[in-house]
Every structure is written in structure tokens, then in C-alpha cells.
Amino acid sequence: MLTNIKDFQSYLDTYQESIDNPEKFWGAVAEAFTWNKKWDSVLEWDFTKPEVKWFQGGKLNITVNCLDRHLPERANQTAIIWEPNDPNEAVVKLTYQELFDKVCQFANVLKNNGITKGDRVCIYMPMVPELCIALLACARIGAVHSVVFAGFSSSSLADRINDASCKLVLTSDGGFRGGKTLALKAIVDEALLDCPSVEKSIVLKRTGEAVTMQPNRDLWWHDEVAKADTHCEAEIMDAEDMLFILYTSGSTGKPKGMVHTCGGYMIYTTYTFKNAFQYKEGEIYWCTADIGWITGHSYIVYGPLAAGATSMMFEGVPSYPDMGRFWQVVEKHAVNIFYTAPTAIRALEKADISYVEKYDLSSLRVLGTVGEPINEEAWHWYDDHIGKGKCPIIDTWWQTETGGFMISPIAGITPTKPTYATLPMPGIQPAVMNENGQELAGNGVEGRLCIKFPWPSMARTIYGNHERFRNTYFSAFENKYFTGDGCKKDEDGYYRITGRVDDVIIVSGHNLGTAEIENVIDEHKEVCETAVVGFPHDVKGHAVYAYVTCYHTPDNEEDLRQEIITLVAKTIGPIAKPEKIQFVSGLPKTRSGKIMRRILRKIAEKDTSNLGDTSTLLDPGVVETIIEGAL
Ligand code: PRX
Prior knowledge:
Its EC number is 6.2.1.1. Belongs to the ATP-dependent AMP-binding enzyme family. With about 625 residues, the protein is α/β, with parallel strands linked by helices. About 30% of the residues lie in helices and about 25% in strands. Strands 12-11-8-6-7-14-15-23 form an eight-stranded mixed β-sheet, with helices on both faces. The radius of gyration is 24 Å and the shape is globular. About 55% of the residues are buried. Adenosine-5'-monophosphate-propyl ester binds next to helix 11, strand 20, strand 24 and strand 25. Adenosine-5'-monophosphate-propyl ester binds near residues 248, 371 and 506.
């Protein structure tokens, strides 16, 4: 039973049932899928360990549910539409049959190269159909994929490969992104200098640029595919076997490899895809995210395909060849459901309205947003100019860790309010907590957002570091999953996410850990200490502000700034570049040596009227100096 929400009352009833009897509810949803063996128990959990197991004893393969089971009715239906970066290049459409054949064939390529169940495969590729095929091929044989967004630097890539001891890397010669090409293979080459676990890499030809192929290690994708058969039995997986690892930034230390498992993830992404978007047979669905992020995993690949949808992948960027590109693509493919990030909306809103008006957007039925809070102005612009006031907007709040939508309107059914993610999805039990760990019951409250009951697609651990998983998510509030977000619950019980309350900054929808950026800047030989905070930015939502102390007064501040920016771009990736770097003589610290980020955040936000209590600072005078030099 995948869909029974028809109107607002049935949403309320469904929600209530899901809370009153979660096992019965999710057991019934799971019946709609293909299992090799049914589960013995729907749920076992203990948030103190934490341990969460859904559908234990159940056996399945997610690709059977995304592909094989659709073939009798929809072999010839388009599964994936691929729109290239260059609008003049040919579109690729793969039917369910074609996608099935290609996935099986590439699964055999993996097997031929020694990959078996449980091996980790790193995928560092542009947004081409082969990327989707690669994920599914891994899942077909039970290999664990770890996709790294193709904008990360070689050292970020190496860290992720090493953290998961990947055996194989899938990449391409290069990638197109707007007017630029990215030399992906060269970045992989650099990363692999330092990755002893990697035995081979398989390289797709995309840009045709020259690359160095290392004998005995690097293989061409097309050569391998030519040798492989298109028949491949699906590996039978336990519901709780690992499906993939995906890294996300944390408030401290290195990125966390979030582990998702097969059964619960499949059920929840499919259920939420169908219900939140109210997806109807035959509709064209377009999520503009990159598969390098969780949004692409759950809502370009797994959820839509398991639901038998037509899912579009886009290789390019919203501004190329011009600011009308998204709308041109909507018209070209008669897109019905369009799902993007607030940062893209804010950028496009600034362009001349003629970029929107020259295209026919009448095919659109539902709009969605994800990744960060959407401001009121952007919400209305999206509603008025893209939805023409007739398309419900679903503001979907969720995380890499949650695997699927947590709080979101049901399209056309939940009455929306601008900037509100509205109400929880069935099965999700949010709790608003105060700083003392008490739940703020009822409506009209504001605090930290926790979830107090498991849901099927939650991450099960951090790869190789369960203790960090427990500490990060299950120690701040007893017996609850802590999201790291703040929220407001209004008089109607509607949730509005107010942003991170930890040291994660969301820049253009991408999570960045302040500690990670600080560590990189501190590596510069002239830098003594750094404190990084976020500050509001017109288009990006938030941007990075770095306060830097140096051993000596810099000879040329501008040069040093550029060097720091280059260092961050090279070590983490261009998305982490500081927007502002202020050189300061000292940082505000407490007597115990802790940096008072609250004060630095306020200065960066240009809100210095009320800095709160600064009397506990070691040297209160430093604050005045920083305010005077603020950028
Ligand atoms: O702060 C929240 C914000 O993005 C964080 C999760 O980032 P990530 O793991 O990269 O996943 C992004 C895609 C699901 C959250 O902790 N966030 C995500 N969606 C929203 C949001 N903030 C407000 N409103 C949203 N709709």
C-alpha cells in the first residue's frame, strides 16, 4: 500500500496510524515491494546504542525493485531522460528495458574486475547517464557505492577513498559544467598517489580530452563494457546490508561517511517520492540536484525508479548558456514536477524576467525545494513566476543522514505557508527541545529539532566510527536523534526550519564544516589561528567568513587572501572558498580558551548592537578591534 493520501483528512489519518502502530504501517508499505524473502520483524531499535534494524530477516535487491519488476508493464517507458550541458547535444532517453540491460552489463564489468558483495566502489563522475548506471550496477551485485561529488578536490577525494578503503574508482576523462570542463581523471590520478586500497579505475570517455592511463590500473569504460554480457542475476541482500556510503560535513573533524542500508532506504524513498510529490503515472519529473549529493541518490535514482517514474538528469548549470536554461529545459521536456534548491531560485530571480517569460511552463504541476531554508521573497517569486500561482510548492526538509523527506507538505494536499516545511511525513515524530533537554510540547514553540522514533531510511552508522555516530546524533538529547537544526513550530503545528545550530554552514545548499575549513587555513605557513563562521548571503543563503590571525602582520593582505582562498579551493573544493577574510590581531576567547563564535557570527552578520555578555572574555578589547575592521 504505497499511496492512500488523497486529501488533507486522509493525510492526518495516515499520519496518526503511522504513529499509533509504526510496525503495522511500515509492514503494509513494504508489502508493495518485491522481496526474495519476507522479513521476520519490522523494527528493532535502541537509540542508546544506537541500533536500528528495519525488516530484519528480509531479503531483496533494490535494483530488482527499480528495474526488473517494472519490465512486464513498462519495459518501453522512459526511465531516465538525460539533458546534456550543451543544449545542442543530443538528449539521451533510456527506457526501463535499456536501463536494465545497461545496469546488468556494467554489473558484469564490476564483477569482471574483481568486485564482489561488500566491496566499496568510489564513484567520481559528472552527471551523465553512466553515473546512474554505475550506482545501480554496484547495488545489483551488492557492492557499496561511495559517490564523491565531482567538484571536490583531489585531497578530499583521497580522504574519502581511504576512509572507506575503496577497491575501485569509477570516473571519466572530464566533465562539462557550464562553460568549463573539469579534468576529473587528472584529479583522480593525483588522489590515487595516496590511496593504497585502490586496485583499478574505470574511465568513461566524456570530454575526449587527453588523459594518462596507467597500465595495470586504468581501464576504459567502453572497452570493459564491450566485453561484458547483459545478463546479471541480482545479488540477494539482507534488508540491513549496506547499500551505500555518502559523506557529509560535520561540525568537527573530517567528513562523516553516512551508511545507508537496503530495505528501509528503498521503502522510505519510494514512499516519500510518490506521496510528497503526488507523482502520477507517466509524469516527467526533474530534480536538478547532482547525484553526488543525497538528493540525487534518493530522488533522482532510487526513489523515482523504484516508483516506476520518468526521472530526468541534467548535466549542466542553471546559468549556461544563459539564465533561462532551466525554463528552456522545462518547456523542451514538458516537465511536470520540478525540484530545485533555494540558492538556484535566488540566483534566477535576479535575472531579467524575460528569461522566464519566453518559455512555456504550463506543463508544471508541482514545484519543490530542498537544501536550506527558503526565504519569503524567493518562495513568492517561485510561486508567481514559475508555478503561475497554480503549482503547490513542497519545501522538503531532510538530511543526508535521514535518507528521505522528513518534514514536507504533500503536494496539493497540505495547505502551504511560505517558508514553512509544514508537517511531518507519515512515520516521522519530531520533537522541539530546549537547551536543557526538555521537550517543548504543543504549538507556538521554538527550539532544537530532534526526532524521537526511528524511520526506515535513517543512517545506521558512520562508516568505521559508530562512536562518532552516537556522539554526534544521539548524545545531545536522551533517546532522540538530534538533527543539528533549529526550528519554530507555529500555532498550527507547522514547522519552519530556522537553520543550523551547530558549526555547519550551508552555502548554496552544500554543508560545510567550519572546523574543516579552519584546519585548512591554519595549514598556511603565515597563519596562526582561524575562526570560521557563516553570514547571510543574497544568493548563496550563507557564505563563509574567516577571521584569521597571523604570526606577523601580512606584507600584502590581498595576496595572502588569494593564497588562502586557493588553498581552501585546492584542499576541499571551490564550494568551500571563504567569501570574506578578515585579518585580526586576536580572536575573542573565553578564559578557558574557547573561541566565542557567537560574537564572531554577530559581527559577520553586521549585528553588533547586542553582543551579549562579553565579560567572560580573556581580552574584551579584541572585540572592538574586530568590529572596526569588519568587512
Ligand atoms: O540545515 C538543514 C538543511 O540542510 C541540512 C542537510 O544538508 P544535507 O545533508 O546536505 O542534505 C541536503 C539535502 C537533503 C539540514 O540539516 N536543509 C535541508 N533541507 C531544508 C533545509 N533547511 C531548511 N529547509 C529545507 N527544506
